[in-house]
Specification:
There is one protein chain. Helix 1 packs antiparallel against helix 2. This protein starts with 8 loop residues before the first strand and ends with a helix. The strands form two sheets. It has a four-stranded antiparallel beta sheet with strand order 2-3-1-6. The chain has one domain: Alpha-Beta Plaits, CATH 3.30.70.1290. The chain is globular and about 50 Å long. Helices cover 40% and strands 18% of the residues. A hairpin with a 2-residue loop joins strand 4 and strand 5. The chain is α+β, with helices and mostly antiparallel strands and 205 residues long.
């Protein structure tokens, strides 16, 4: 993964061989607490959703997250945010292996980071505002699309309830999200459940 400060990315990963990555409610909250403690110093999170066998984050790396790590006085090709994401998934995997008395990889080897802004191909082919909103709403719609809930507010492991003002979470930078997506609270409530353009969804990966 390579990040540029101030750009918006869709970051995602899934279980190795599509296996579950969350087994209990406590696993979800443990993972989110790690995100809050470990990722937020390197980026602003705009939205997220944890699913039984994968996760989605929409984020904006900051200058600290984009710094390259120095080892033995030499600059490496690894950025702080990339390293932090890898360490989080590795330590979470260790905790799950202890819990389940298993071993081996829990996640696919490499997390993916799709650049949503600053991508000339995307900008030339679609309207960038619709592209960003599609990602934002798609992330929140995941539990509904997977038939895990009948209403989005029924899934506690996404940022939907933070934006729907059912919860005062502190993982997402809502102010920045509304600004960068040119979105209002009223628009969010209207648009979050609308049908999304499949062609735009395909471009998110």
């Amino acid at each position: 993964m390579h990040f540029e400060s101030g750009q918006i990315y869709h970051v995602y990963n899934r279980g190795n061989d599509k296996q579950p990555i969350f087994f209990t409610e406590a696993n979800y909250f443990f993972f989110l607490n790690k995100i809050k403690a470990e990722w937020k110093k390197n980026c602003d999170i705009l939205c997220y959703c944890l699913m039984p066998n994968h996760f989605h984050f929409m984020m904006v790396p900051n200058d600290e997250g984009c710094k390259y790590i120095i080892l033995a006085g030499k600059q490496t090709h690894l950025q702080n945010l990339s390293k932090t994401i890898g360490k989080t998934l590795s330590s979470y995997t260790q905790a799950i292996n202890i819990q389940n008395k298993t071993s081996g990889n829990l996640f696919q080897k490499k997390s993916k980071a799709k650049l949503l802004t600053g991508d000339s191909e995307s900008v030339n082919s679609i309207e960038i505002h619709d592209y960003l909103l599609t990602c934002f709403h798609y992330v929140h719609q995941n539990p509904l699309l997977a038939n895990l809930v009948k209403h989005l507010k029924g899934w506690p492991f996404s940022s939907y309830n933070d934006y729907y003002n059912q919860r005062s979470g502190n993982i997402c930078n809502k102010t920045l999200a509304y600004k960068m997506l040119a979105l209002s609270e009223i628009d969010f409530e209207k648009e979050v459940i609308k049908d999304l353009d499949k062609k735009l969804i395909d471009r998110l990966f």
